[in-house]
Specification:
Blueprint: H1 2-5, H2 24-40, E1 50-52, H3 55-59, H4 62-77, E2 81-83, H5 84-94, E3 99-104, H6 108-120, E4 124-130, H7 144-153, E5 161-164, H8 172-178, E6 186-188, H9 189-201, H10 212-223
Parallel strand pairs: 1-2, 3-4, 3-5, 5-6
Helix pairs in contact: 5-9, 5-10, 7-8
């Protein structure tokens, strides 16, 4: 996020609580419960915007519920608050994207929840690539080679954007390599979050000082 937001913005972060004895769904549900307090932890710091960099917890809310939560948080905080999922919808809309290939490192139940979220938001999911790390589902352990290979091996429709969900999956190097394969839009949770934040702050999303992946995404938005 620091690379995507530079230059022009300072980034401040806070963590959700660590819940080692709670399963994944329980953690995601808790993240939604404690989100107002997490934002409140910034205290008197005068933020211009905030992104909730966790897509999984907001898939539990549905697009309508997600929007309502973000609107309420924005009103309480006094600055715009968006989830990474809502940021994806904003970036996809700007780029004219209405059809997706979902690239997901999640466990199957969460991938299905993600797919339902995008469909309920009005996007068509043409195909799902279920990415694994050494034969298991673990977003933080997927290597660049594994990610690129599994996307390239999938039989993908030509008319759909690639959406890499999961803020914890490393995508910079993989997207740089895959960008040479196709002219289709490439979206990730973090890329879209930075795009929304920069757009909200009035920072350019294209140009020589902007990260190449953001510049590439913005070129799709301009074309749309």
């Amino acid at each position: 996020m620091s690379r995507l937001m530079a230059p022009g913005a300072d980034i401040y972060t806070t963590r959700f609580p660590v819940l080692p004895d709670t399963d994944l769904r329980g953690r995601l549900e808790t993240y939604n419960e404690v989100l107002p307090g997490a934002l409140g932890g910034f205290g008197s710091l005068r933020l211009d915007a905030a992104v909730v960099a966790c897509t999984g917890s907001h898939y539990l809310l549905s697009p309508r519920g997600d929007r309502e939560v973000c609107d309420e948080l924005s009103q309480q905080a006094g600055y715009p608050v968006r989830s990474a999922a809502m940021a994806i919808l904003a970036a996809a809309g700007a780029a004219g994207v209405d059809r997706l290939v979902l690239v997901s490192p999640y466990m199957p139940w969460l991938t299905e929840l993600s797919e339902t979220y995008w469909r309920d938001a009005g996007l068509s999911v043409a195909h799902v690539v279920k990415v694994q790390a050494a034969g298991r589902y673990s977003p933080y352990d997927v290597t660049t080679d594994e990610l690129v290979a599994q996307v390239r091996q999938a039989q993908l429709p030509d008319d759909a954007a690639l959406l890499f969900t999961g803020t914890g999956m490393f995508t910079f190097d993989a997207l740089a390599e895959l960008a040479g394969d196709t002219g289709r839009p490439l979206l990730t949770s973090n890329l879209a979050s930075a795009w929304w934040a920069r757009d909200t702050l009035g920072l350019p999303n294209s140009g020589p000082d902007v990260h190449p992946l953001l510049d590439r995404l913005s070129s799709k938005a301009v074309a749309a």
